[in-house]
Structures are given as C-alpha cells and as structure tokens.
Specification:
Distance between the termini: 53 Å
Structural class: alpha/beta
Radius of gyration: 21 Å
Number of strands: 13
Strand content: 5-15%
Largest sheet: 7 strands, mixed
CATH class of the largest domain: Alpha Beta
Bound molecules: pyridoxal-5'-phosphate
Number of domains: 2
C-alpha cells in the first residue's frame, strides 16, 4: 500500500483548511429552532432583485462554458474604476484572488507580512504557497503599519492589509496608506484588501474622513493590488465573484495562474446586474450604518467591549466564556462567529449587522445569553 502521507509536502501537512461560519441549516438542525445567520458578513437583504432576474434569464445558457476572460464584467469594471481592462482580474471571490497572488509571488524561503488578528485566509494561502507569514502585533485593535515596515525583510514579497480589517472592523485612512506605500521597498507588493469598501466609504462620508484612494496608486503604476468583492454589500457571496486591480504586467501573471473557467456565467451575469442596482447597494450601506449606531452602544451597555466599526460587523470582547455565550445565542436562534480557533481571539465574537429585526433579535438574545453565562454555577 502506498503511504499517501509521504507524498504530501511537509508545508501542506501543517495546513489548516478554512473554517467558515456555521451554516444556517446546520445550526437549525443542531438546535431545533429557526435561526438568523450573523456569522459571515453577508448582505441581510439578499441579492439585488435585478441580479436574481438576470440569473433566472441566464440559466438556460448553462450548458455553455462561461467566458474564460470574463470580458464583459471586466470591461464594465474598467469603465467604473477608470482603468484599462488589462489592470483587472475577475476571480471566484476575493479569497481566490488571494490564493492566486500567493501562488504567483510567494514560494519556499519567501515571506508575506500582515497583522495579527486579521483575515484568516492570509495564513492559509501563504502556507499553501510554501512561504512564511509574519504577523505583526496589533495597535489599537488594528494594523500597526510602522511595525509592518520594520518586519519586512529581503525575502518579503507580499504585504496583506485588510482595510477595513476583518475581524476587528478598524480602518487605515488614505493618508496613512500613502505614507506606508511611499516607504515600502521596491521588492514588495501590497494587497489592499477592500472587501468592505462600500460600507467603509459610506462611514467615511458620514464621519468626514478620507477612507481610500487606492485606485490612484493603481493608476500611478505602484506595486499594489486592490481587492474588491461582490460577496458583501452586493449580496452575491454564494455565487463567488470578486476582483483584483493592479499593474497590467502583474495582473497578466496572475491571470496565467488562475484556474480555467473559474467565474461561472451566472456569477458574471449577476455581478453585472448588481452593478446596475445602486438602490440596493445604498439600502445595504444605509441600513448598516444605522445598525452600527444602534448596536454599538447597546452591546457596550451589557458590559461587552465593542470596537467601533468601519465594516458590516462588530468585534466584541465578551470575556473568557465566549464559546458558551455563542452556544447560548445559537440556542436562541442567532448564529454569530466565535473568534476561537484560527482567529486566535478566544475571548471575543464577531457579529454581522443585520436588518433592524435581526439586530433587535440579536440584542435580546445576547442579553439572555449573558445572563445565563454570568449565572453562578
Ligand atoms: C478581509 C476580507 N477579504 C476578502 C474576503 C473575500 O471574500 P470573498 O472570497 O467572498 O470575495 C473577505 C470575506 O470575508 C474578507 O473578510
């Protein structure tokens, strides 16, 4: 018998697979109650009705392979972002883009740098590329850019910056990113991960701050890749579509590394329709800002430390008993994301901002769960 384990390279044996938020059906099956899912930062209003209509209309063409170059969506994105199509690569969600970047730029002996308490896909894709991930301690619950600059060495090829950061929801403003990029050595490519761009832009307008002008860096030809996704504000997480924007030469190399026919025709059609539905997007970002305003003080009033958010979720430091707390919340029909395991924040959970009804349900459930956790045993 072949020892299959022997065939697997050592760096892959240590690889941990991605652990997603608990699926709605699984939680309902476990608890026997109807649940709301506030665990994966999805759009609580679902996809745009225009996207649903476009998907319906396109299903009869499903026997054809999709357009490998995703030409129509790429052209539309180029128009919207004032870039050349050669500067854009559409992928099956932003996570796939991260994987392609790692496989293209990293390898044995090389490293990537990011922050502790950031997106759990960064360690996975880096390790899968046989490279090493350096994680710099956080500053005020977010990225410490000075620390990241100090951690970069001659073998660094990639810096991942989640902006806003997942899971803490903190942001780095446009000027901080400018200063950071100006000091980066030429052998490093920065991934500006703006998965929560629409929410952060809305907050920035409300709060009188400049969140991001990352595309100016792309237009200036700097070694940055800006990541965006249709999974969050556009409500298309289940269809898997996202994109990267960067220097044409680099994006050309990334394109060579992408799996063939990665973006389905339904995903492309839905994304094009979602781009045309500004009302749906506006509803999502407005509801999100109102939800953040309601939830942040209400959670804090229960003695839980909440980090002010720039995204569509809240990072909550509840205490040591967070696994138990999340279990009680689930029994009460609310799925949140414990920050245990790969997130390495065992005293915290993350909750996605929902519809007004979801948020009220969550607050009542949290109150009951806290009371149960704090009960003397
Ligand atoms: C920081 C960050 N980047 C990228 C993504 C990628 O999402 P997707 O693969 O659904 O586009 C996510 C999703 O949770 C995220 O939180």
């Amino acid at each position: 018998m072949t020892n299959l384990g022997k065939l697997i390279p050592d760096h892959l044996k240590k690889l941990d697979s991605y652990k997603p938020g608990k699926a709605l059906r699984q939680a309902e099956w476990e608890t026997g109650v109807r649940c709301i899912k506030l665990a994966s930062n999805e759009n609580p209003f679902g996809p745009s009705p225009l996207a649903i209509e476009a998907i319906r209309a396109a299903t009869s063409e499903s026997h054809f392979y999709p357009d490998n170059g995703v030409v129509e969506l790429t052209a539309r994105l180029a128009e919207i972002h004032e870039l050349d199509p050669s500067q854009i690569l559409v992928t099956a969600g932003g996570t796939t883009l991260l994987d392609i970047v790692a496989r293209t730029l990293l390898g044995p002996g090389l490293n990537a740098v990011t922050s502790k308490l950031s997106f759990i896909v960064y360690p996975i894709v880096t390790q899968a590329a046989a490279a090493h991930l350096i994680e710099v301690p956080t500053l005020n619950d977010g990225y410490d850019l000075e620390g990241i600059l100090r951690a970069i060495d001659g073998n660094t090829r990639v810096v991942y910056i989640a902006n806003p950061n997942n899971p803490t929801g903190t942001v780095l403003d446009a000027q901080a990113i400018d200063r950071f990029l100006a000091r980066l050595p030429a052998h490093v490519v920065t991934v500006l991960d703006e998965a929560y761009y629409d929410f952060a832009s809305y907050f920035a307008a409300q709060r009188g701050r400049e969140y991001s002008h990352s595309l100016d860096h792309v237009r200036a030809g700097r070694p940055v890749i800006v990541l965006r996704t249709f999974s969050k504000a556009h409500g298309l997480a289940g269809l898997r579509v996202g994109y990267g924007m960067g220097p044409a030469e680099l994006m050309g190399y990334l394109a060579r590394m992408k799996p063939a026919f990665m973006v389905s025709s339904l995903a492309e059609t839905a994304a094009l329709a979602a781009l045309a539905d500004e009302d749906h997007l506006q509803r999502a970002v407005e509801n999100n800002a109102a939800g953040a305003e309601l939830l942040t003080p209400a959670i804090a009033a229960m003695g839980v430390r909440v980090v002010p958010t720039w995204a569509n979720f809240l990072f909550c430091h509840a205490g040591e008993d967070v696994a138990q707390l999340c279990q009680f919340l689930q029994e009460d029909g609310v799925i949140v994301r414990p920050m245990t395991g790969p997130w390495r924040a065992p005293d915290a959970f993350r909750v996605t901002i929902g519809t007004p009804e979801h948020n009220q349900h969550f607050l009542s459930a949290l109150k009951r769960a806290r009371a149960r956790v704090l009960q003397p045993k």
